[in-house]
């Protein structure tokens, strides 16, 4: 075959600029409102899945797919993940026992639609996938409380630290070290 020898009209076009949108996460007040709506749901799996998501930062499908055999060492093993890498996230004794007792009885049933209904009842606005706000809420509050970005990367299962860095601006001392660590101060 010969090489194509004609002009491609799209090459000289400027690339479109993408807006760098802020991450949406829930404040403590919004979170309490959401948890109240979740507790009012008739879907028995919903409160468990939401609590798992908020305590681990796991994706909705990872939380919904959690089974009793993935509960060990006071934490949850997520094996069917987006990047194919398994990961372990420790949780509180209280949540571990709560989920363990529930999953001894039966697996979680699908509850995404019930979550969307509960979320809509809060009258909060969401951009993108509704349930993903729980993952952003976990990560945002983790960093704002002083959590380590490297640990967050491992907890969330991000493929690189670059992906996790989108939460860096929420760190309480973000950029403040420039005052103490610059050459004029040392």
Keywords for this entry:
186 residues, mainly alpha, hpI Integrase, Chain A, 3-stranded antiparallel sheet
Percent helix range:
40-55%
- What CATH calls the topology is hpI Integrase, Chain A
The portion of residues forming beta strands comes to 5-15%
* pLDDT < 50 stretches: none
User: Radius of gyration in whole Å, from Cα?
Assistant: 21 Å
Report the CATH superfamily: Intergrase catalytic core
Blueprint of the fold:
Elements: H1 28-39, H2 46-56, H3 60-64, E1 71-72, E2 75-78, E3 87-90, H4 93-105, H5 112-121, H6 132-144, H7 149-156, H8 161-164, H9 177-181
Antiparallel strand pairs: 1-2, 2-3
Helix pairs in contact: 2-4, 2-6
How would you describe this structure to a colleague?
The protein has 186 residues and is mainly alpha-helical. It has one domain (28-173): Orthogonal Bundle (hpI Integrase, Chain A). Helix content is 44%, strand content 5%. The protein has helices at residues 28-39, 46-56, 60-64, 93-105, 112-121, 132-144, 149-156, 161-164, 177-181, and strands spanning 71-72, 75-78, 87-90. Strands 1-2-3 form a 3-stranded antiparallel sheet, covered by helices on one side. Helix 2 runs antiparallel to helix 4 (93-105) and helix 2 runs parallel beside helix 6. The chain starts with 27 loop residues before the first helix and ends in a 5-residue tail after the last helix. The model has no long low-confidence stretch (mean pLDDT 88).
